[in-house]
Amino acid sequence: MRIGLLTEGGYPYVSGDAGLWCDRLVRGLGQHEFDIYALSRTERQEDRGWVRLPPQVGRVRTAPLWTTHDDGVVHGRRARRRFAEAYGELVAAVCGGPRAASPEGPGDPADGADTEADRFASALYGLAELARDEGGLAGALRSESAVRVLERACRAPGAPRTARTARVPDLLTVAAHIERTLRPLSLDWYEDDALGSADLCHAAAGGAAALPGLLARHFLGVPLLVTEYGVHLRAHYLAAATLEEGPAVRALLAAFHGRLAAEVYRAATLITPGNAHARRWQERCGADRAKLRTVHPGMEAARFADVGEGVRGSRSADPGTLVWVGRIEPAKDLISLLHSFAEIRRAEPGTRLRIVGAPAEDPGAATYLTHCKALAAQLFPDEAEGVHAVGDNPVSFEEIGGPEIPSLAEAYACGAVVVLSSVVEGFPVGLVEAMLCGRATVSTDVGAVVEVIGGTGLVVPPRNPRALAEACVALLRDPERGERLGAAARARALELFTVEQNITAFHGIYLEIVSHSPVRRVVVDDEGEPLPFGVPAEVHVPGCWTETRFTGEHRPARAEGAPVRATVPAPVPVSVGEGA
Q: pLDDT class for 110, splitting at 50, 70, 90?
């Protein structure tokens, strides 16, 4: 089958989010054909290029979200009126403003949420149809009239108090953000020879990545599969908390992304969260429980096999060393880890802590690393065995690739206990890597940690240095317990979190969706009656596999097309020869 893989800021770019997962999926499903539709986030991401693509990728189409361009579309009076009406309904649904007066009264308040969701969806698809008719909406979404429509929605009776406080700079910020998110409306991807030729669309994330899938379903009837290993709406909430924007901007953008997420979940044929934590978020945001299929991310177990199985020549664990591995950023809460290590040193004076990682791409991450190094120097002055020896700090900050730690597996191998101290976490990839290495772990109870660890490690509350210290000391003082937990953790990771498990799950989901999707071109027999199974799977394979012919394209198109009369294939002569 042909899969339209939809990404935003991810695959096939070298620096893309979830790029490794998508690449493993595409390479693992070599029996299918993939077309990639990618939205890029920054110019730097595009300049760094793509990863090497496997042969099953038929084509790649990209569009930038980081730049604005004039599409040259000039809208007439009628188009401008259609835009004002549709955009007005969209932002009114975001602001929670009232509809036009109805003679039947305000209606049942219990139906308000569903009504606003339908209102948002109708307005969104109205804008999409206008963009398709006129050739784009880039200029209209950035126009002064769009800002004025947004202002009227914020000032309308019934709008939330926070929205009514929005000033002109706030309105400009919100309008620009909505325009950036809705840029996929103006793309030329929604034709029979583009997304219309796909058997299903697979969005690798929610938000803007899933928007082309919504339109392909609306215009072409292509089923949509949405995978979220990190829930897009949750990520928006976390990012908004760090921005210096006013409450009106945060409230309006949260409402907009909440409406968009609800429509994505409503329109999707199936939704595959990466863990129970993401699944709970999706259900709270309106996802139908019957559509949810949990599919854990897949990790390459082979790269950790030598360490996990204790192969001779692999680095053996230092029983007095704790290891932390990951991207250094405030969400990882290394400050609490350092204060916790101070208590560990008082209980076990010879213990060392190795922090392995590099700052995240966030500009504030480098500053955070500097602060952590300064705190470590303050809490743990260099120690020396004698007056003539050089002092050494028990906390070290290292990066992978040097002589001490040449690989990621070596990073986990150098200590007996691996620590995760995060205050915010989605699916803890680093924890799974430590499990594959057979290491005992101490983790904070955030995100999907409890689901992943499953009783094979110690879990403590976040932002609690004392609890973290007590758990680490317990494992340091009982190495045999640590070995048992590490062995159990590796067995669990091999059962649930491998690439093979992930690929097998998605292969089955693809077949399930296609088997339940309606045929988009009717095939009839000689008497004019619909022919069951008139579009066999063989028609998707190049070559003369069947005599069935379609009008127009060689692939099924929309159901509005004229019925096609099936022909009976000629019998194939069978002969009995040698070896029969």
A: very low
Percent of the chain with pLDDT over 70: 83
Burial of 30 (0-12, 13-18, 19+ CB in 10 A): exposed
Q: For residues 176 and 186, what is the distance between their CA atoms, to the nearest angstrom?
A: 15
CB 322, CB 419: distance < 8 Å: yes
The DSSP-derived string for 506-556 is HHHHHHHHHHHSPPSS-EE-TTS-B-TT-S-GGGGSSSS------SSSSS-
What is the reported pLDDT for 535?
56
CA dist 389 and 571 (Å) reads: 91
**241-248 CB contacts, 8 Å cutoff, 24+ apart:** 245/170, 245/173, 246/165, 246/166, 246/167, 246/170, 247/162, 247/165, 248/154, 248/162, 248/163, 248/165, 248/166, 248/167, 248/170, 248/174
CA distance 299 to 21: 8
Q: What is the pLDDT of residue 449?
A: 95
CA distance 28 to 35: 15
Instruction: Mention every residue, 6+ apart, whose C-beta is less than 8 A from residue 391.
Output: 381, 382, 383, 384
Q: How many CA atoms lie within 13 A of 290 on its CB side?
A: 2
Query: 482 near 522, Cβ under 8 Å?
Result: no
Residue 189, token pair as written in the block: 């991807």
120, containing H or E segment: helix 112-134
Amino acid 510 reads: Y
Residue of higher predicted confidence among 199 and 553 = 199
- CB-count burial class (<10 Å; 0-12, 13-18, 19+) for 436: buried
SS3 letters for 33-94? Answer: EEEEEEEECCHHHHHCCECCCCCCEEEEEEEECCCCCCCCCCCCHHHHHHHHHHHHHHHHHH
CA dist 566 and 470 (Å) reads 73
Tokens read off for 462: 């976040």
Local confidence band at 128 (pLDDT 50, 70, 90 cut-offs): very high
Q: State yes or no: pLDDT of 36 exceeds 70.
A: yes
- Cα angle value 58/60/61 (rounded, 5°): 140
**CB-based burial of residue 512 (10 Å sphere; 0-12 exposed, 13-18 middle, 19+ buried)?**
middle
What 8-state DSSP symbol labels residue 420? E
**CA 171, 173, 176: angle at the middle one, nearest 5?**
105
pLDDT tens column, 172-220? 999 999 999 999 999 999 998 899 989 999 999 999 999 999 999 999 9
Q: 124, 263 in Cβ contact below 8 A?
A: yes
Joined tokens for residue 371? 């602060």
Report the distance separating Cα 53 and Cα 353, nearest Å: 40
Query: Residues 216-251: pLDDT tens digits?
Result: 999 999 999 999 988 888 888 888 877 778 899 999
154 contacts 109 by C-beta, under 8 angstroms = no
pLDDT average, residue stretch 258-262: 94
The mean pLDDT value for 49-78 works out to: 87
All residues at 6 or more sequence positions from 422 whose CB lies less than 8 Å from its CB, including other chains: 331, 332, 333, 428, 444, 446, 447, 462
Give the count of alpha carbons within 13 A of 354, CB side only: 23
In terms of C-beta density within 10 A (0-12 exposed, 13-18 middle, 19 or more buried), how is residue 573 classed? exposed
Report the C-alpha gap between 159 and 153 in whole angstroms.
7
